[in-house]
Amino acid sequence: VGKALFDGQLLDVHFTRSFYKHILGVKVTYHDIEAIDPDFFKNLKWMLE
């Protein structure tokens, strides 16, 4: 990804919300997992409560 950006190449990719947040310096939370894997999020939320 970095090399493609450096070379000015367009990439036909879709990143997760947590990846974008990480790039922007925004804190990533376990709630961001919900968009990737709803079942895992549900189980994680159950364990944390």
TrEMBL record:
Annotated ranges, domain HECT: 1-49
Domain of life, per lineage: Eukaryota
TM spans (from-to): none
Keywords linked to the UniProt accession: Transferase, Ubl conjugation pathway
EC number annotated for this UniProt entry: 2.3.2.26
Pathway where this protein functions: Protein modification; protein ubiquitination
One Gene Ontology term from the biological process aspect of the record: protein polyubiquitination
Catalytic activity: S-ubiquitinyl-[E2 ubiquitin-conjugating enzyme]-L-cysteine + [acceptor protein]-L-lysine = [E2 ubiquitin-conjugating enzyme]-L-cysteine + N(6)-ubiquitinyl-[acceptor protein]-L-lysine
Entries under Pfam families matching the protein: HECT
GO CC annotation terms, alphabetical: cytoplasm
UniProt KW Transport keyword: no
One term of GO molecular function: ubiquitin protein ligase activity
Enzyme kind, highest EC tier: transferase
PANTHER family, per the entry: HECT DOMAIN UBIQUITIN-PROTEIN LIGASE, HECT-TYPE E3 UBIQUITIN TRANSFERASE
The protein's name in its UniProt record: HECT-type E3 ubiquitin transferase
Organism name: Nymphaea colorata (pocket water lily)
